[in-house]
Design goal:
The longest helix has 28 residues. 52% of the residues lie in helices and 12% in strands. It has two domains: 55 residues, no CATH class; 67 residues. It is extended. With 151 residues, the chain is mainly alpha-helical. Helix 1 packs antiparallel against helix 2. The termini are far apart. Strands 3-5-4 form a three-stranded antiparallel beta sheet. Strands 1-2 form a two-stranded antiparallel ribbon. It contains five helices and five strands, in the order H-E-E-H-E-H-H-E-E-H.
């Protein structure tokens, strides 16, 4: 997985332009019904056909950029190194390797290197979030039964 070395937050001017662009694009997208609409670059008068899904993704990027947030785009079918997968999960690489070896996350081995699919990491992360939520609900219910909450 490739990481950008010099990633900076959008400037105030970039945020302002992104918000204006997002508003205009979101309004236009409501009226577009073809799978591959054509857009025109005003500066060069060049027309380009773009998949509608790509335009919708661009709208999301503009919205997030207008909020001053950084953007990361990762192809879903991408195979990741164990280090990149660990960073995505927010854990150490040795812990991730342990999860892989325990069969909690699928992986493939290329030589002596393990590779993990992005979608498998995201699925594991969702399972863990659901498990955490379930446990929190049980703890809260237990606390209520024990009378730890005032009414």
């Amino acid at each position: 997985m490739e990481y950008l070395a010099n990633v900076n937050r959008p400037s105030k001017e970039e945020q302002r332009v992104a918000m204006e662009s997002y508003n205009a694009l979101a309004e236009v997208l409501e009226q577009v019904h073809t799978k591959n609409p054509e857009i025109e670059i005003e500066e060069t008068q060049e027309k380009i056909r773009i998949p509608l899904k790509a335009l919708k993704l661009l709208a999301k990027i503009l919205k997030v950029t207008s909020q001053g947030k950084l953007i990361s785009i990762i192809p879903v079918a991408t195979e990741m190194t164990t280090q990149a997968a660990a960073e995505l999960l927010g854990c150490s690489r040795p812990h991730l390797v342990k999860l892989l070896e325990e069969g909690k996350i699928e992986f493939t081995k290329i030589g002596k290197h393990r590779r993990v699919k992005y979608e498998d990491i995201i699925a594991y992360k969702k399972r863990m979030k659901a498990k955490q939520k379930e446990l929190l609900i049980k703890i809260m219910a237990s606390d209520e039964e024990a009378g730890l909450y005032d009414t």
